[in-house]
Write a structure and sequence with these properties.
single chain; 106 residues; Jelly Rolls; three-stranded antiparallel beta sheet; 0% helix
Length: 106
Amino acid sequence: MKNKQNIYQGLPADLSAEVLETLAQGNHIRIERIVSQGQVSPEGFWYDQDEHEWVMLLQGHAILGFSDHQLELKAGDYVHIPAHQKHRVEWTSPHETTLWLAVFYS
């Protein structure tokens, strides 16, 4: 049996780049903790994933962009992104840590 862990503990001190950590994975699922502070998707870049993604914002603020709209997210908000729905990170707060929990599955 493994020791328990806490998603809010052990956050990286250096957030000059977004940090992705795989918490668990199986044949058709991957769960990640993503830590951001001011990072955005590169200009003109869109995620176009083969997997579905369910993502929840645990703390901080962010804006996700889609081809026809944007979603502002705050702590507790979550969204389901079907496979191949193009999206991007338009904004994450530069003044606080933004903590995401993302579940990728097929």
